[in-house]
Design brief:
With about 210 residues, the chain is mainly alpha-helical. It is about 50% helix and about 5% strand. The protein folds into two domains: about 80 residues; about 70 residues, no CATH class. It has eight helices and four strands.
């Protein structure tokens, strides 16, 4: 029995008092547990994945690669629509939840396949901030003064360690924005997706090194 099992633990498995005696049981229980996946959810995901299969080609991301922000952005659009009470995509009639699963399935598959262009922002402190603000059910709601003091301590402790400048990047990754004057207006050269991804990766690497010091 897991050590972290809660008192409110509820099992949806069929009740049985029998325990398997097959010697393979222990080996099977130590492997990835696909039985933990609710299979109905895979039906929704398959329906949504079919759209990309027909439109862009099966497993196209393993060949062409994908940008992290493109799929995270699509996931958020479906998630926000679902949170706002819209269950089905008005264009396809398919459930938003299926598209959310499909987006993350492609993201993770591209990640482990080495085809994910990681153009996310450099690491921030969102996760740590959420953990700091979370409380257990048996804890009292903090006063406004206590919450402000918490946030001030958090900012004081974390803000200096996240400060990164372009000076910490390798020189060959710093893009040269050449200003051009056309029709009396200054134009700046836009970064390509690949350039943004390389800069983001280098900034995250520099941030991790700085955090370890």
């Amino acid at each position: 029995m897991p050590q972290d099992r809660l008192d409110t633990y509820v099992s949806g498995l069929r009740p049985t008092r029998e325990e398997g005696l097959n010697p393979k049981d222990k080996f099977g229980e130590a492997k990835v547990n696909f039985n933990a996946i609710p299979t109905a959810s895979l039906v929704f995901m398959a329906e949504s994945m079919q759209d990309g299969w027909d439109k862009y080609g099966p497993f196209n991301w393993r060949v062409a690669g994908v940008q992290a922000l493109v799929y995270l952005g699509a996931l958020r659009r479906h998630l926000y629509a679902l949170l706002d009470g819209e269950d089905y995509d008005p264009k396809t009639g398919k459930h938003h939840g299926g598209y959310i699963m499909a987006c993350m399935a492609i993201y993770l598959d591209a990640l482990v396949s080495g085809r994910l262009i990681d153009n996310r922002p450099i690491p921030g402190k969102t996760g740590a901030l959420i953990q700091m603000l979370n409380r257990r059910p048996d804890q009292e709601t903090p006063t406004a003064q206590h919450r402000m003091e918490q946030l001030e301590r958090f900012i004081e402790l974390n803000a200096p360690s996240t400060a990164l400048t372009l000076a910490e990047l390798p020189k060959n990754l710093i893009p040269k924005h050449q200003a051009q004057v056309q029709n009396g207006r200054r134009k700046r050269r836009h970064l390509t997706a690949e350039q943004r991804a390389r800069i983001g990766k280098a900034l995250r690497k520099a941030w991790r090194k700085k955090k370890q010091k």
